[in-house]
Amino acid sequence: MKYGIITKIISPLRPGPDHRTEMINQLLFGESFLIKEEIGEWIKIEGILDSYSGWLVAKDIMTVTKEEHEFSIKNKAFITPRLTRVYNANNKNESFLVLPGSTLPLFNKQKHTFQIGNISYIVETNSFTEQARDLKEAIIETSRTFLHAPYLWGGRSLFGIDCSGFTQIVFKINGINLPRDASQQAGVGSLVPFLNESKPGDLAFFDNEDGIITHVGILAGKGKIIHASGDVHIDSIDYQGISERTSKEYSHKLRLIKSVF
After folding, report:
1. 233 catalytic, yes or no?
2. Comparing C-alpha atoms, which of 44, 123, 117, 58 is closest to residue 84?
3. How far is CA 170 from the centre of its chain?
4. Between the chain's N and C termini, which has fewer beta carbons within 10 Å?
5. Residue 74: CB partners within 8 Å, gap ≥ 6?
6. Nearest CA-CA partner of 185 in 205, 170, 201
7. CB of 64 closer than 8 Å to CB of 5
8. Which residue among 69, 227, 233, 252 is the active-site one?
9. Angle of the 135-144 helix axis to the 163-173 helix axis, nearest 10
């Protein structure tokens, strides 16, 4: 059984071993996975975070043994809350930025270092700031850092993100793992019966004419929701659904609300 870790800033996941197929997901720096199959330059993987499967280009990864993977899982990783500069510990002239929601495995809080395989890295110290007072505040603060990020099907980053990628990354940064798709995320947590009983940070889900859940956003309180639709922005919400920011017409029909913390 082989495992791998993403060593590029971001890597697209595709449904087949072909660059011409659509992107169905993205993996960020440091995220790990199980390797299921290898064909030429491609590997089929299953993500550790959410069990999402697809094909990656092999040059974007570093393979690790089962023992190395299990050791890494047992030792707490640091999840980057913002754009973060990291340095190669053996060559301080080599540095790069990793995206919010990236995973820094085998993280040493005292030394601000982490390790992938036999390579050690140093994290820029201004990446460590005081956390918000409680989880509700932290989730809303994190959500706002993605405002104006463009919509991208399968995206999970500031460069492009879809609705469930947005919620997944925001919650990952705050220590809560969610499934990848909106319909899967709707199966997590406890049901909130009414909108006026919700709290900031709860997830609101929306369905289409066939009753299939196709959209999710993060409730921000005071009748507002932060979600990725066109871009990441704030709209108004009531018991019927989302009122679009410019036309004021309903763009998404509210199906249910879930609390996951």
Report:
1. no
2. 123
3. 6
4. N
5. none
6. 205
7. yes
8. 227
9. 130
Q: Could you confirm whether 112 is annotated as catalytic?
A: no
Q: Which of 69, 112, 163, 252 is catalytic?
A: 163
CA distances 6 to 107, 140, 175, 206, 237, Å, are 16, 28, 20, 32, 37
pLDDT digits (tens, 9 = 90+) for 171-187: 999 999 999 999 999 99
Q: Which of 69, 112, 215, 252 is catalytic?
A: 215
Count of Cβ atoms closer than 10 Å to residue 95 Cβ: 13
Tell me whether residue 148 is one of the annotated catalytic residues: no
CA distances from 86 to 115, 129, 146, 170 (A): 11, 16, 21, 21
Q: Which helix (H) or strand (E) holds 142?
A: helix 135-144
> What domains sit in the chain, N to C, each tagged with a CATH number?
1-129 (2.30.30.40), 135-259 (3.90.1720.10)
pLDDT tens digits for 30-52? 999 999 999 999 999 999 999 99
| SS3 call for 162 | coil
